[in-house]
Write a structure and sequence with these properties.
261 residues; TIM Barrel; eight-stranded parallel β-barrel; 12 helices; binds 1,3-dihydroxyacetonephosphate
């Protein structure tokens, strides 16, 4: 059974305009190990600038967008579609990030429709799931993760896509660890990832579950990236704040480079 690719992804959130994106690409350290998928999620307005600057130095970095609407086009002021993201050169789309859920009120049902739209555009959804501190303290971790994953990967719903060769990435991002400096311990991450992998196995197939990368996100830094990535079931990291600085992002890439797994 094939094991998942290892992934280091950076979510810039609402940071870095086109000029800062170009400077970031120019300062990014190369080479990047071939067994690692490196992905950046810039703001949509900085996408073209970042893409051109990475291409100019032949950097093996794929790009994604942070958000799409589930329709392909229409009167939805301010939105972009998955088809547009694909045309612009994106390969990945973040879906269900806790900031979208909490600040913009995105529901599980909207997340499911977005994931469908992303698959329709032949892009890879990076489905973010994670519990709040209150939910964790109330021992509701599995209930919350199961509900968020199940909204998208209910029995049978996704297997057809996966059988056709499409890919899904899951990102476990405990809400209490995002932007707080608090990181889940490698054991906490493994436990949540093991649960998610088990549900994937149940709802898709053993092959799909085995090849679906499950990333950890929440205060990942150069100092803790290697330890997190060496934890069982952790296939990669989704980095927020520490992905904004080319030096710290390069150090994270180096820390999880060859030989750590
Ligand atoms: P931080 O790394 O800043 O905690 O953010 C994590 C995150 O939300 C990535 O999507």
């Amino acid at each position: 059974m094939s094991s998942p690719r290892r992934v280091v992804a950076g979510n810039w959130k609402m940071n870095h305009g086109p000029g800062a994106a170009r400077e970031f690409a120019e300062a990014l350290d190369l080479p990047i190990s071939e067994d690692l998928d490196v992905v950046l999620f810039p703001p949509s307005l900085s996408f073209a600038s970042l893409r051109a600057s990475l291409e100019a130095k032949n950097a093996p970095v794929a790009l994604g967008v942070q958000h799409v609407h589930h329709e392909t086009s229409g009167a939805f002021t301010g939105e972009v579609s998955a088809a547009m993201a694909a045309e612009a050169g994106a390969r990945y789309v973040l879906v269900g990030h806790s900031e979208r859920r909490q600040i913009f009120g995105e529901t599980d049902d909207q997340v499911r429709r977005k994931v469908d739209a992303v698959f329709e555009a032949e892009l890879v959804p990076v489905l973010c799931v994670g519990e709040t501190l209150g939910e964790r303290k109330a021992s509701r971790l599995e209930e919350v993760l199961g509900r968020q994953l199940g909204a998208v990967v209910s029995p049978g719903a996704i297997q057809e896509r996966m059988d056709a060769g499409q890919a899904l990435i899951v990102a476990y991002e405990p809400v209490w660890a995002i932007g707080t400096g608090e990181t889940a311990t490698p054991d906490d991450a493994s436990q949540a990832h093991r649960f998610l992998r088990g549900r994937l196995r149940e709802w898709t197939s053993p092959e799909t579950a085995a090849r679906t990368p499950i990333l950890y996100g929440g205060s990942v830094k150069p100092e803790n990236a290697a330890e997190l990535l060496s934890a069982p079931e952790v296939d990669g990291v989704l980095v927020g704040g520490a992905s904004l600085d080319p030096d710290s992002f390069s150090r994270i890439i180096a820390a999880v480079g060859p030989g750590t797994q």
